[in-house]
Specification:
Layout: E1 2-4, E2 7-9, E3 20-23, E4 27-35, E5 42-51, H1 56-72, H2 89-93
Antiparallel strand pairs: 1-2, 3-4, 4-5
């Protein structure tokens, strides 16, 4: 539990999904979603933007998360089709 004079905040384990966007080297955005407890549906409620300055530490933390994620990613190889078997745009959209 985190406490501030006059109020308390209880922290419980939850699963949150955020979309993080990077803009150049000094800007980061994070989506804020709400969840309907009955249907489980998610709604985009807004976005939080961080800019360096004044949020250089926050931007750097997001960059570190990005670097750690890239280190764990597995390379994917392109699949080559013979010229006469190239998928058509119609087949690719289905």
């Amino acid at each position: 539990m985190m406490e501030t004079k006059g109020c308390s905040l209880y922290v419980a384990p939850v699963l949150l999904r955020h979309i993080v966007g990077f803009y150049g080297t000094d800007k980061v955005s994070m989506t804020v979603e709400t969840v309907d407890e009955h249907s489980g549906g998610r709604t985009l409620s807004g976005m939080i933007f961080f800019h360096d300055p004044p949020n250089g530490e926050i931007v750097e933390q997001f960059r570190q998360i990005e670097r750690e994620t890239e280190r764990r990613m597995v390379a994917v190889h392109k699949i080559r089709f013979p010229e006469d078997e190239l998928p058509t745009s119609e087949a690719a959209t289905n």
